[in-house]
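Ligand-bound model needed. biotin.
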Amino acid sequence: MKTEILKLLRKTDGYISGQQISHKFGVSRTAVWKVIRQLQEDGYQVEAVRNKGYRIVDSPDVITKEELDSLMKTCWAGRNILYYDVTDSTNLRIRQAGDEGAPHGTLAVADRQTAGRGRRGRHWESPAGTSIYMSLLLRPETAPDKASMLTLVMAVSAAEGIREGIAAGRDTEEKSGSTEEDGRQSSPPEIQIKWPNDIIINGKKAAGILTEMSSQIDYIEHVVIGMGINVNTVEFPEEIRGTATSLRLEYGYRIRRAPLIAAVMKRFEENYKTFLETEDLSGLKDRYSAMLVNRDRDVLIAGPKETYPAHALDISRTGELIVRREDGTVERIFSGEVSVRGVYGYV
Ligand code: BTN
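Prediction:
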């Protein structure tokens, strides 16, 4: 009921009366009033005006199930939400949910993680109240060797979703610190992708993706795509300060997390459909390449045996990075095997 009323308030231009709401849901006006009170206690600014009704003026930066349900515009991605105030790792939660039969598209979201995990066994800093930690469960009917491409599908979706979600989630409470007021450039910073799946703004990492798969030799049981987005973080631990950033630091204002999550899910659902049409990145490659920060740059490829310089050209239809070695040979780099960084720094 809370989610439904929240949705209705959001959909309504102007005021909607208690009578109309109670009629729509077949409940008493007192029940409606109680829900409105609950929403106000949760931090929603709902104006109540005699003879006019209710109007939602502002929403808090919460990522609860109700808030996400009320914003989600997808058919399946993020339609079944598992929300945690605190959990160890949303990737672990969603893997367990997958083993227990949770449906394709189930999304675990946490406000804080105590054991957030990054790629290559690294730790992912996951404090409360500032960022997004979420993991999506997929049950793709594709062969296991196609799964690595899903991480690139999420990278494009995250970049596009963040771009859209930044506008939708801009915190209207916070007027100071707008890009123009604090003297930054008025055109918003570009969102880029560092192959295969880091989201980069102004040369620093704003989001990362960790994809894990549970499979048999010839079929995928499930895939977990975990994503951490630094949204309103203003201070990073010493060891990542030089390479990490947040949307708030780059855009100059606070952003509500829930609209961002909804926007990323929407983009992912659409992009996943495109991926399934060909089971490769043919339909997404141009958009991915246009955001690829490594494109046409000198990079260092660090593999298990050697680190060598190369020139990054593009990605292939199946998601490998195409590079030209110094001796002129062109080769494809698979994401599981190596890490790629700029010759002079992180990108
Ligand atoms: C990376 O190293 O770039 C990947 C970071 C992925 C972090 C996210 S936060 C939500 C999900 N749960 C985890 O434990 N990790 C991923």
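Residues 84 and 110 are 5 Å apart (CA to CA).
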